[in-house]
Amino acid sequence: MAKVCFGMVTSLDGFVSDRNGKLDKLYKSFKPNDEINEVMANTGAVVMGRRTYDMTDDPDAYADNYEFQVPIFVLTHRPPAKHPKENDDLTITFVTDGIESAVLMAKAAAGERDVVILGADAGQQALRADLVDELQIAIAPLLLGTGTCMFEHLEDMEIHLEKTRTIETDEQVEVYYKVSRQGTA
Prior knowledge:
Elements: E1 4-11, E2 15-17, H1 24-29, H2 34-41, E3 43-49, H3 50-53, H4 61-65, E4 72-75, E5 92-95, H5 99-110, E6 114-118, H6 120-128, E7 134-140, E8 148-149, E9 157-168, E10 173-184
Parallel strand pairs: 1-6, 1-7, 3-4, 3-6, 4-5
Antiparallel strand pairs: 2-8, 7-10, 9-10
């Protein structure tokens, strides 16, 4: 059965971007491996927040060289005036009516494959709405000290996790958790 996965690369101190909102330092130290490539190959759709979508200088580049060539659903209050380039595999839908709608559309597009949620805010919204089945966290060998925290704004949540897999390489550790139960503290 397809899963909804919130996955990101984070620094050891829990930041998914640096103080300037950049990911360069994290991804420079992140090295995909066979297991990560397998997870990516089983992804059927992506949900991301608008800030994550806007991190590229050229939105048309998604169709040319984005790592996930699948339907993308972007959470936003204001879709861009110009729709970005798409291709036979990658379509981009701007969703203005919330995370539940975005995940529902992504699940329909993904079929039996997984839905991956990218972006701290989108992931936090999905956790709050109890839509996440699995956390996929790659820990980069880096301390950033400040930046965007992966798990902010969840103060009133108590989220129980069950570790399902750990992948350790020379460069990093990746941990997978099943989200087993959520509730209020």
